[in-house]
Write a structure and sequence with these properties.
- The complex is a heterodimer.
- Chain A has a 4-stranded parallel β-sheet, sandwiched between helices.
- Chain A is built from 4 helices and 4 strands, in the order βαβαβαβα.
- Chain A has one domain: Rossmann fold.
- Chain A is 38% helix and 16% strand.
- By secondary structure, chain A is of the alpha/beta class.
- The relative contact order of chain A is 0.25.
- By secondary structure, chain B is of the alpha/beta class.
- Chain B folds into 3 domains: 127 residues, no CATH class; 39 residues; 137 residues, no CATH class.
- Chain B contains 11 helices and 9 strands.
- In chain B, strands 1-9-5-4-2-3 form a 6-stranded mixed β-sheet. Chain B has a 3-stranded antiparallel β-sheet with strand order 6-7-8.
- The longest helix of chain B is centred in the last third of the chain and has 16 residues.
- In chain B, 44% of the residues are buried.
- Classes of the chains: A alpha/beta, B alpha/beta.
- At the A-B interface, helix 2, helix 3, strand 4 and helix 4 of A face helix 7, helix 9 and helix 11 of B.
Chain lengths: 147, 324
């Protein structure tokens, strides 16, 4: 493990479904729940829209963690998008485990638009867990080119 | 309805009576104990001197290549294809994905007790370029540097063939060899079990080591019958998704993403591993994908052409325990 610089802060990419988790983030904001500012949010139309490629690419480009959050199973705006997503993510989760990628670098959750407090809580948990893991040295490219 | 037939006779008949436009099979390859694809077109096969006809077709342990990969070139035509058990599974997978109409295909099933892997052969003979080698009664008679050696065929077989659970093709219209005894492969893959017994850090070391070897030549993708996308993510350039540097992270990205595409689709034919010039242990990860499909979803790739695919299908009570 590389030495962690004292000022290092985890950089986390979050893919949030616009119908639920993104609205959950909004609710957390208007409700003035505090949570760590380490996440960068990408709004997606559905968790089913998240290609595993995006998650892997984020790790390659040096993100320390990736979170994908969608509607609770059964609550999808498009009826079945998150069911499809769940199989894909289950596979990716097991595959990353099998490859030996550190546990918790890539996380999946279901947060509804009414769960502002849960959103803040999961952001806090995720940030703490990834801070504990330290910088992403496994998959981050040493020379990143954004082309 | 599967009937026993002689490979060359049935091939000649199918081409002559217009049942098929094209026939895909194997012929002896140019190097010892290798086979190459033979593509015969109705009306022209064997019509000119020196041009191979159905009499050039062979099937034995040399015929390692998965010919189903070539099928994509003949979409919309009536095609007869010679398949081993694993190839037949790959073919069933393509029918399941609506790439081919089963009615356009005549499947010549070749029961197979294992195929030669070039790497295992080189190890068995202690030479990667024998002067000559022939196969007689499950023994390989080879001449390496003027010295004759005889090794059992089993030493040169692809390691994956040892625990093959699909020796006899399941969707054949004709069988071109006698059925072979089926080994019991109901127990989980040993290599996958062994990897799960390791710690995560050890699995990472193994993965890192394999990925550091990959030169991103994409040979695994080229030979894979399940890799038929018009444009592969690895070739996509606007925006460029997959990096192509020698940083192992680029190999990791390519393989991890390719595996997410292969889950529930890879039948374990081993074509990728035999094609890999760097000897990357692709089998381990492909076996993992099949174990995942089997244990988590009771799904077997290519076993049922009517079933919804593993990724793409869903059930409301699918496993949820990996979420926060």
């Amino acid at each position: 493990m590389n030495e962690t610089p004292a000022q290092w802060e985890p950089k986390i990419l979050a893919f949030l479904c616009t119908w639920c988790s993104y609205a959950g983030a909004d609710l957390a904001g208007v409700s003035r729940y505090q949570y760590p500012p380490n996440i960068r949010i990408v709004k997606v139309p559905c968790s089913g829209r998240v290609n595993p490629a995006y998650i892997l690419k984020a790790l390659c480009q040096g993100y320390d963690g990736v979170l994908v959050s969608g509607c609770h199973p059964g609550d999808c705006h498009y009826l079945t998008g998150n069911y499809h997503a769940r199989r894909k993510f289950h596979l990716l989760d097991r595959l990353l485990d099998f490859a030996g990628i550190e546990e918790g670098r890539v996380r999946f959750s279901w947060i509804s638009a009414a769960e502002g407090a849960r959103f803040a809580e999961i952001m806090k948990q995720t940030t703490e867990a990834i801070a504990k893991l330290g910088p992403n040295t496994q998959m981050a490219k040493t020379t990143v080119r954004y082309d | 309805m599967t009937e026993r037939a002689d490979l060359r006779t049935i091939a000649a008949k199918l081409l002559a009576d217009g049942t098929v436009d094209v026939l895909i099979g194997w012929q002896p390859g140019s190097s010892p104990l290798s086979a190459a694809p033979l593509i015969l077109h109705a009306g022209s096969a064997g019509s000119e001197p020196g041009q191979a006809g159905p009499e050039a077709l062979v099937f034995d342990a040399r015929c390692a290549m998965n010919l189903v990969n070539l099928l994509h070139k003949f979409k919309g035509k009536k095609v007869a294809i010679v398949v081993k058990g694993c190839d037949a599974r790959a073919l069933a997978g393509l029918v399941q994905e609506r790439q081919f109409d089963r009615n356009d295909l005549v499947v010549l099933g070749a029961p197979c007790a294992g195929v030669i892997s070039p790497r295992a052969l080189a190890r068995a003979l202690n030479s990667d370029s024998p002067d000559s080698a022939t196969l007689k009664n499950d023994r390989i008679h080879a001449v390496c540097g003027g010295v004759e050696t005889v090794v059992p065929l089993s030493d040169a077989l692809d390691p994956g063939c040892r625990r093959c659970a699909m020796r006899n093709p399941q969707i054949a219209d004709w069988l071109v060899a006698d059925p072979v005894a089926q080994t019991d492969a109901s127990e989980p893959a040993e290599n996958v079990e062994e990897a799960w017994r390791m710690t995560r850090a050890e699995r990472w070391r193994k993965f890192r080591q394999e990925m550091a070897r990959c030169i991103l030549c994409h040979a695994c993708r080229q030979v894979c019958p399940a890799c038929y996308c018009g444009e592969c993510f690895a070739d996509q350039s606007r925006p460029r998704l997959a990096g192509r540097t020698d940083d192992p992270a680029d190999a990791m990205f390519f393989h991890l993403l390719r595996w997410t595409h292969l889950a529930g689709r890879c039948t374990g034919c081993g074509a990728c591993e035999r094609a890999c010039p760097m000897g990357v242990d692709l089998r381990l990860y492909n076996d993992f994908l099949r174990e995942f499909a089997r244990t988590e979803y009771g799904y077997e790739a290519g076993a049922d052409a009517q079933a919804p695919p593993l990724i793409g299908g869903f059930k409301p009570d699918d496993p949820n325990r990996f979420t926060l």
